[in-house]
C-alpha cells in the first residue's frame, strides 16, 4: 500500500506558507510543539539516538519525546547544583539556527528600541558595555504537564524541562543606560527572536516575541555564555535574553530586538499561546506564563534509580523560589502525612537559582512515597496542581512525589 | 461439496475484509492528499511515506503519533500550527483521513 500512495510534495506550493499569502489561516500550516507522545524515549534514527543539532548531548541523561522536545531524566539535572549543558532539556519553537545562518558570532546584531536613544549593538560591542555572571532557573512553562489527568497536547514533561544555568553576558540595565534610559510611557519589555526568519513563515504566527513587565529589565541580562562555554545554537546562541524568575519562553533565543513598549506584543506566541486558562477555555484575557511559582522535587532516590538498600538514605532534591528566594523545604517519607525540614547544602547562587537540599532518613525495608514541599516565605507549594487547559505552571507537591522500594 | 462449503465460508468472511481494505485504502489516499496539498503538513514535518522533509515541526517518523493524538492537534492546533478544525480549514472527514494516514504511515 505504501508504495502506491507515495507522492512527492509539490515544493513550488511552499510559497503558500510565506507571510504574504492570502489564506492567512493556512499561512503557517506548521507544527512546532511536539504532540503528546505514545512511546517517549524512543531512539532517533541517528547513530547516537539524538537529532543531529544536539548530537553533543548525553543521550543517557535524556528522555526523547520528539526530535524537538527532549527532557532531562529526574536523576540527571545535576548533583552539583548547576545542570551540565549536555544534560539540559531542549524545547524550541523554531528550528535551531545553524552556524551558516548565524554567521560571525561577534557581528550578531540586537536592536534596542523604546529607549531615549535607540541603538543597534553587535555582540562585540555588547561585550564592551559590561560583564556579569548570574545563575537562573530555566524552566519550560509546561514542566510537569505529564502529571495532568486531562489529555493535554504538548510534550509530557514530568520534572526534566528545567535546569539551573550559569549565564554570562551583559546586564540589561547597562544596555538601557547606554541608550539613555527607558522611555517614560513604556509598560513592557518586549524581546524578539529572529529564528523564524529562515523559515519564511508569517511573523505574526511564527515570531517568538515575548513581553514581560518593564521592571524585569533591572535583573535581566543578555547572555552569550552558558555554563562557561559560548551559548550553543540549540539554546539560542549566540545571544539570548535571560529573564530571571520567569518561565523559559520569556528567555528569548537568537535575540534580535529588545523594545520597551506600551502594549504587549500581538504575535501568536504572546497573544494566544502560553496563556493559563481553565480547561475548555482559551484567550488572551487569561494570564500569560510569566513568573514561576515556588517548586521543588526529589532527584535521588527515585523510581528511576532502582531499589534502595535499607539503612541511612540521603534524600536529595532541588528547591526554587520563583522570583523570590527559597526559604525552606520539607520532606515527607509517608506521602505527606508528616514532614521534616531538610537541610540546604552547597553554595547559594542567588534567589533565581535553585538550592540543593538533603534529608538523611533511616529507612527499613518497605515501600515509601517521598515528597518535598518548598516555601519562599510568602508562598508554599500546594498539595495539588492548578488545573488548566495546557498543563502549565505545575507546582503541586503530590504529583511530584516519588515511590521507592527499600529492601 | 465440502470444498464448495469452505469456499463459501471464506467468501463470507473475506467480503467485509475486502470492503474494509478498500475503505482503508481510500482513506489513506485522501489522507495523503490532505497532507500534501490542502493542509501542506509536509512543509513543516518529515514523513517518509509522503516524501516530506519539513523541519519546523517534529519528525513524524520518529514521533509515531497515535491517530487520536494527530486528530487532537490537527483540530485544535499547537504553537505555530493552525487549528485546522477549529478554524474550519479542514472538514472532519479530511481531519479523520489525515490522522489515519499519519498514524498508519509514520515510521514505516
Care to describe what's here?
The complex is a heterodimer of chains A (407) and B (108). With 407 residues, chain A is mostly beta strands. Among the domains of chain A are: 95-140 and 158-271, Oxidoreductase, molybdopterin-binding domain (Sulfite Oxidase, Chain A, domain 2, Alpha-Beta Complex); 295-406, Immunoglobulin-like (Sandwich), CATH 2.60.40. In chain A, 8% of the residues lie in helices and 29% in strands. Chain A contains seven helices and 21 strands. Chain A has helices at residues 2-5, 24-27, 99-102, 123-129, 172-178, 203-206, 268-271, and strands spanning 62-66, 69-72, 90-91, 109-113, 119-122, 132-139, 162-171, 188-193, 209-213, 221-226, 229-230, 240-242, 255-261, 295-300, 311-320, 328-332, 340-341, 343-345, 355-363, 366-375, 402-406. In chain A, the strands form five sheets. In chain A, strands 5-4-13-8-9 form a five-stranded mixed β-sheet. In chain A, strands 6, 7, 10, 11 and 12 form a five-stranded antiparallel β-sheet that branches. Chain A is globular. Chain B is mainly alpha-helical. Chain B has one domain: Cytochrome c-like domain (Cytochrome Bc1 Complex, Chain D, domain 2, Orthogonal Bundle), CATH 1.10.760. Chain B is built from four helices and two strands; from the N terminus they run αββααα. Chain B has a two-stranded antiparallel ribbon. Chain B is elongated. The model of chain B has no long low-confidence stretch (mean pLDDT 88). The chains are: A mainly beta (407), B mainly alpha (108). Chains A and B meet through loops of A and helix 1, helix 2 and helix 3 of B.
Structural domains of chain B: how many: 1
CATH class of chain B: Mainly Alpha
| Portion in strands of chain A | 25-35%
Shape of chain A: globular
Helix proportion of residues of chain B, in percent?
A: 55-70%
Find the count of extended strands of chain B (DSSP E, 2+ residues). 2
Q: For this structure, what is the CATH class of the domain at 95-140 and 158-271 in chain A?
A: Alpha Beta
CATH topology of chain B: Cytochrome Bc1 Complex, Chain D, domain 2
Oligomer: heterodimer
Based on the structure given, which CATH architecture of the domain at 95-140 and 158-271 in chain A is correct? Answer: Alpha-Beta Complex
Order of helices and strands of chain B: HEEHHH
Strand order of the largest sheet of chain A: 5-4-13-8-9
Determine the mean pLDDT of chain A.
90
Which overall shape of chain B is indicated by the principal axes computed on the Cα atoms? Answer: elongated
- H-E order of chain A: HHEEEHEEHEEHEHEEEEEHEEEEEEEE
Return the CATH architecture of chain B: Orthogonal Bundle
CATH superfamily membership of chain B: Cytochrome c-like domain
Amino acid at each position: 500500500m505504501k508504495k502506491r500512495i507515495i507522492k512527492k510534495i509539490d515544493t513550488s506550493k511552499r510559497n503558500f506558507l510565506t507571510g504574504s499569502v492570502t489564506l492567512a489561516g493556512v499561512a503557517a500550516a506548521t507544527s512546532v510543539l511536539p504532540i503528546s507522545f505514545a512511546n517517549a524515549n524512543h531512539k532517533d534514527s541517528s547513530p547516537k539516538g539524538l537529532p543531529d543539532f544536539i548530537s553533543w548531548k548525553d543521550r543517557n541523561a535524556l528522555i526523547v519525546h520528539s526530535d524537538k522536545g527532549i527532557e532531562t531524566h529526574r536523576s540527571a539535572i545535576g548533583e552539583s547544583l548547576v545542570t551540565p549543558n549536555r544534560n539540559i532539556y531542549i524545547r524550541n519553537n523554531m528550528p535551531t539556527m545553524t552556524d551558516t545562518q548565524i554567521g560571525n558570532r561577534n557581528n550578531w546584531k540586537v536592536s534596542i528600541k523604546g529607549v531615549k536613544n535607540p541603538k543597534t549593538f553587535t555582540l562585540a560591542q555588547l561585550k564592551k558595555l559590561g560583564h556579569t555572571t548570574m545563575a537562573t532557573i530555566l524552566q519550560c512553562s509546561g514542566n510537569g504537564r505529564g502529571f495532568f489527568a486531562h489529555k493535554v497536547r504538548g510534550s509530557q514533561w514530568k520534572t526534566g524541562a528545567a535546569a539551573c544555568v550559569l549565564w554570562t553576558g551583559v546586564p540589561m540595565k547597562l544596555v538601557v543606560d547606554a541608550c539613555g534610559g527607558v522611555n517614560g510611557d513604556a509598560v513592557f519589555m518586549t524581546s524578539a527572536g529572529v529564528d523564524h526568519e529562515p523559515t519564511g513563515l508569517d511573523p505574526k504566527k511564527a515570531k517568538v516575541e515575548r513581553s514581560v513587565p518593564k521592571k524585569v529589565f533591572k535583573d535581566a541580562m543578555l547572555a552569550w555564555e552558558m555554563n562557561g562555554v559560548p551559548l550553543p545554537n540549540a539554546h539560542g546562541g549566540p545571544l539570548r535574553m535571560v529573564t530571571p524568575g520567569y518561565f523559559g519562553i520569556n528567555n528569548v533565543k537568537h535575540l534580535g530586538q529588545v523594545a520597551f513598549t506600551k502594549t504587549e506584543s500581538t504575535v501568536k506566541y504572546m497573544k494566544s499561546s502560553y496563556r493559563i486558562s481553565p480547561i475548555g477555555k482559551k484567550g488572551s484575557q487569561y494570564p500569560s506564563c510569566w513568573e514561576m511559582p515556588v517548586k521543588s522535587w526529589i532527584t535521588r532516590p527515585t523510581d528511576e534509580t532502582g531499589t534502595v538498600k535499607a539503612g541511612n538514605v540521603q534524600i536529595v532534591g532541588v528547591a526554587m523560589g520563583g522570583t523570590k528566594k527559597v526559604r525552606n523545604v520539607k520532606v515527607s517519607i509517608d506521602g505527606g502525612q508528616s514532614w521534616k525540614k531538610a537541610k540546604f547544602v552547597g553554595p547559594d547562587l542567588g534567589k533565581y537559582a535553585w538550592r540543593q537540599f538533603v534529608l538523611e532518613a533511616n529507612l527499613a525495608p518497605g515501600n515509601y512515597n517521598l515528597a518535598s514541599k518548598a516555601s519562599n516565605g510568602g508562598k508554599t507549594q500546594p498539595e495539588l496542581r492548578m488545573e488548566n487547559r495546557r498543563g502549565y505552571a505545575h507546582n503541586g507537591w503530590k504529583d511530584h512525589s516519588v515511590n521507592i522500594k527499600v529492601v | 461439496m465440502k470444498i464448495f462449503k469452505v469456499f463459501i465460508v471464506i467468501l463470507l468472511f473475506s467480503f467485509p475484509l475486502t470492503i474494509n481494505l478498500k475503505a482503508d485504502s481510500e482513506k489513506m489516499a485522501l489522507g495523503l492528499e490532505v497532507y500534501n496539498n490542502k493542509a501542506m503538513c509536509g512543509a513543516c514535518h518529515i514523513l517518509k511515506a509522503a516524501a516530506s522533509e519539513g523541519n519546523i515541526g517534529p519528525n513524524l517518523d520518529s514521533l509515531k503519533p497515535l491517530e487520536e493524538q494527530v486528530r487532537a492537534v490537527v483540530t485544535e492546533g499547537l504553537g505555530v500550527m493552525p487549528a485546522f478544525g477549529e478554524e474550519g480549514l479542514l472538514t472532519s472527514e479530511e481531519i479523520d483521513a489525515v490522522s489515519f494516514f499519519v498514524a498508519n504511515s509514520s515510521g514505516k
